[in-house]
Amino acid sequence: MTEELLVKTLLDARPRLVAGALAVVRDVHSAEDVFQEVLLRALRMRESFSDEGGLLAWARVTARNLGIDQVRRSGRLGEILSELALDAMHERLEAASDSQRLRAEAMRFCVEKLPEESRTLLRLRYDEGHKGPELSRLLRRNEAAIYKALSRLHQALRLCINQRLAAQEGTQS
Question: Who's near 68: CB < 8 A, 6+ residues apart?
Answer without folding.
Answer: 24, 77, 80
